[in-house]
Design a protein that fits this description.
The structure holds 2 protein chains of 2 kinds. Chain A is an alpha/beta fold. Chain A is built from 12 helices and 8 strands. In chain B, helix 1 runs parallel beside helix 2. In chain B, strands 5, 6, 7, 8, 9, 10, 11, 12, 13 and 14 form a 10-stranded mixed β-sheet that branches. A 4-stranded mixed β-sheet of chain B has the order 1-2-3-4. Chain B folds into 2 domains: about 80 residues, 3-Layer(aba) Sandwich (Rossmann fold); about 100 residues, 3 Solenoid (Pectate Lyase C-like), CATH 2.160.20. Classes of the chains: A alpha/beta, B mainly beta. Bound molecules: adenosine-5'-triphosphate and magnesium ion.
Chain lengths: ~260, ~190
């Protein structure tokens, strides 16, 4: 059983998109997955997964004993082993006692292989809360200076909290932009963050469309993005999926600095 | 054999004879690292150095680090320090954006100083990694040494060098009311 927070510091880099599609890729491998929406932005996971009208209760109802924890879990439309624990409409996550939340996560651990927590942007309370429930983190970045600076800050904070299992995921990867020197490179990202690379996800309009339609992009098994998430899920499960050569070499250089 | 090697829990311990000249020890270590054992693909053990009662000076630590970096065979995991000596503090981790570190004793940073990190130095500092943050010498006697600076800000006693980008052994110090950057030969 693993509890992993998906975080970034900077907003809009794709935490929610990544959380959902990693959830799908793991479920596709037969894992039992629970996605926890700890993000109170406008786009909630339920909307992005097309589950909006299935959400009846939320955490507030559990806290006030109107329903059980089991009853707020929403089963995904496509994968029987994937569930969503939706964000609260009526109160913010921070208003719920942390110990209570830790207890709930403990309870969920018995029935899931993975609990993925989509953290809100920033390093304020919501972030502290989400990371406080986890032992592992996936730091989502885009190849721009602001995203990497924020991620670096976040990694420092995570390490301070004792979360040492850290991996970075580069989202919105655009090789044209990299080749033309418009954006930074994977090498730059690794130089500055110096944590292992979990994978890359291409910049693709299909992602935006999928999110808006409420049909996760992973569902289109022919798409390149779907393949990206398969590889990410494999690496999460400890299967070695090779990267392009130069990245690996750079990694070693780094270790021996 | 003045350098002996033993393995426990995936960490190699190199024990240095206390009587032997340090340069001789480095020569032996160099020979050890050329052994076939270290040429296996994917074998990159962590290494701890037991130097007994010996007191390493800064040059010796730097030359040890240089040797390890040159071979790229093992990952430095620390060195013994005896209490009574004025030892050099080692900081192994990356210093990240938003962090401020206060340095009160001579300190060797083994990894990078990232943009947005601040090092406040009341004592000499040595950097093995890339330095991109802001290094501030809090008094005129502080010495700052490093080998790779990238858009780094260095100031000593209120005098500042902006945007230092340089790839060479460099010492920065304060002399005649100004900050001096000395690039070493080799
Ligand atoms: N790989 C991608 N290619 C193209 N667009 C993407 C990709 N990933 C995410 N997006 C788009 O970027 C926008 C932000 O994505 P998302 O909401 O997942 O980010 P977030 O980090 O969760 O944001 P917030 O910080 O607001 O919670 C959305 O419009 C989404 O469709
Ligand atoms: Mg989000």
């Amino acid at each position: 059983m693993r509890t992993i927070v998906i975080t970034s510091g900077k907003g809009g880099v794709g935490k929610s998109s990544v959380s959902i599609n990693i959830g799908y890729a793991l479920a596709n491998r037969g894992e039992k997955v629970c996605l926890i929406d700890a993000d109170f932005g406008l786009k909630n996971l339920d909307v992005m997964m097309g589950l909006e009208n299935r959400v009846i209760y939320d955490l507030h109802d559990v806290v006030t004993n109107k329903c059980t924890l089991q009853q707020i879990l929403v089963k995904d439309k496509r994968y029987d082993s994937l569930y969503l624990l939706p964000a609260c409409k009526s109160l913010s996550l921070e208003e719920i006692d942390v110990n209570y939340m830790v207890q709930m996560v403990d309870q969920l651990q018995e029935q899931f292989d993975y609990i993925l927590i989509d953290s809100p942007a920033g390093i304020e309370k919501g972030f502290q809360y989400a990371t406080g429930l986890c032992k592992e983190a996936i730091v989502v970045v885009n190849l721009d200076v602001a995203s990497l600076r924020d991620a670096d800050r976040v990694i420092g904070l995570l390490l301070k909290q004792g979360i040492t299992e850290l991996q970075m995921l580069v989202n919105k990867y655009n090789s044209d932009d990299i080749n033309q020197g418009r954006s930074l490179s994977l090498r730059d990202a690794h130089e500055i963050l110096s944590i292992p690379l979990l994978g890359i996800v291409y910049d693709d309009h299909q992602m935006i469309e999928a999110n808006n339609k409420g049909v996760p992009v992973y569902v289109d098994r022919k798409s390149l993005i779907s393949l990206c998430f398969d590889r990410i899920a494999q690496r999460l499960e400890g299967i070695e999926v090779p990267f392009m050569k130069y990245k690996k070499k750079k990694l070693l250089d780094k270790l021996f600095r | 054999m003045n350098v002996t090697m033993r393995s426990a829990n995936d960490v190699l311990t190199f024990k240095f004879n206390e009587e032997t000249q340090f340069s001789e020890l480095l020569g032996e270590l160099n020979g050890l690292l050329e052994q076939p054992l270290f040429n296996q693909d994917g074998y990159y053990p962590r290494a701890f150095f037991d130097i007994g009662k010996r007191i390493l000076n800064e040059d010796e630590i730097v030359s040890l680090m240089k040797l390890l970096k040159q071979h790229k065979k093992i990952i430095f995991d620390g060195v013994t320090c005896t209490k009574e000596k004025e030892n050099m503090q080692l900081i192994k981790r990356v210093i990240r954006n938003g962090e401020t570190i206060r340095v009160d004793v001579p300190t060797l940073f083994l990894d990078d100083i990232n943009p947005g990190a601040f090092i406040h130095c009341y004592s000499d500092v040595y950097f093995m990694g890339r330095v991109s943050g802001c290094i501030i010498g809090m008094n005129s006697s502080v010495k700052i040494c490093g080998r790779e600076f990238e858009r780094c800000k260095i100031s000593i006693n209120q005098k500042t060098l902006q945007d230092v980008t340089i790839s060479a052994m460099v010492t920065v110090y304060y002399e005649d009311n100004d900050i001096v950057l000395l690039k070493e030969e080799k």
